[in-house]
Amino acid sequence: MTDPIFHNEAKALAHIEAQRWPDGEPICPHCGSTHITKMGGKTQAGMFLCNDCRDKFTVRTGTVMERSHIPLHKWLLATHLMAASKKGMSALQMSRMLGITYKSAWFLCHRIREAMDKANDTGPLGGPGKVIESDEAFVGGFKKKRLSGNVAPKKKIVTLVERGGPARSFHITNIDHTTIRAALVTNCHRSSVLMTDDARFYNNIGREFAAHGTTLHSNREFSRGDGHHSNTAENFFSILKRGVIGTYHHWSAAHTHRYLAEFDLRYSTKDKSDTDRANDILKGMEGRRLTYRRIGLLAA
């Protein structure tokens, strides 16, 4: 946390510009032109003028940071903290560390998760000779442990994990053949080997892949020596559930997909350093917008 980009606004601006425009030439987010003039003065610091469309823009324009009044060095610090926190970081903790209101921190974290979702979109999972594991989980609290008895229903989650590769999770309404098949065939190469438990709806789905291996969880068989298991997906769920129970405590159904994107990205980039992961998130910010009005409507 001693890096100047987390404390100095000018260095933070230079870092974000370098990540967005690595060639050193700003590109107009309005028309795509490279005929750009850098503006100066105290009131126009960090601003550019497009000589073709004549629109002005900054490094924030066309990203999740657009129209945000939070300083860039705090954006970088928040991004690094979320990239480095294995089980996530609550908005309340973020507000204390950044010195901003809880409301601002909550919205800031969701915008970073929106960028994480794009950063983890690296194309279909698997391929020839690769193994994909699919498993489902119920995420949420236990009604019997609440004194009031009022607790939101558990969220149904399906996660697809490529062994030695990325993970992709989805909040689904039903755990059945139609829903699980849609998640698999739209996100995985059919040439992959599919590994699952013995849920009956996988029988027909497995025929669409190069091979299908199962373990009989109903008989307490969780692994066989020939590589038949879905323990990689189970390991992902163990981290996910620790994050829910220990950090966030509750996810609204309207925002569950963003929380899943956060855990997916950290898992998919587990071999990268925290700095490289944070830079991937910065690149994922481009082309994404999330307004407070829109996020409020989703939660309504």
UniProtKB/TrEMBL annotation:
> ISXO2-like transposase domain: which residues?
124-268
Record-linked InterPro entries: IS1016-like_transposase, Tnp_ISXO2-like, Transposase_Zn_ribbon
Where in this chain does the entry annotate a coiled-coil region? none
**Record's Pfam families?**
DDE_Tnp_IS1595, Zn_ribbon_IS1595
Superkingdom classification of source: Bacteria
Q: What is this protein called?
A: IS1595 family transposase
Q: Species name for this entry? A: Sphingomonas cremea
